[in-house]
Fold this protein.
Amino acid sequence: MMIRLLVSAVAFAALAACSSDPMGDIRDIFQPAKGEAAFTTGLKQYEDGEYAESAKNLQSALHKGLGDRDKVAAYKHLAFIHCVSGRERQCRDEFRKALAVDPTMDLAPAEAGHPIWGPIFRAVKAGR
């Protein structure tokens, strides 16, 4: 009985993996995306204020491949970099890309209150 239950659970998980996004997230845990190292480096550089280097690594990570959650974070940070650099069009484009991956995406309260990218994000999200 226990073996039959285990086999059923494995079969169900395998079938769910074919059609379910949450199952993709589980696969990502066990099989890191190829762009993961560049993504991690890019986020660290962003936190350190090294925006040009951060943007290069985040773009590289996206090119190499990331899971959806990390794609959204990469696009969001690229948008932040463009916004504070006075490149509003590119900022909007990166927010659009993030929202294309996850239409429910929202900024954290501290991010949403930012005087430069907060209003741009709200305008992009409202225009979807």
Summary: Residues 5-20 have pLDDT under 50 and may be disordered.
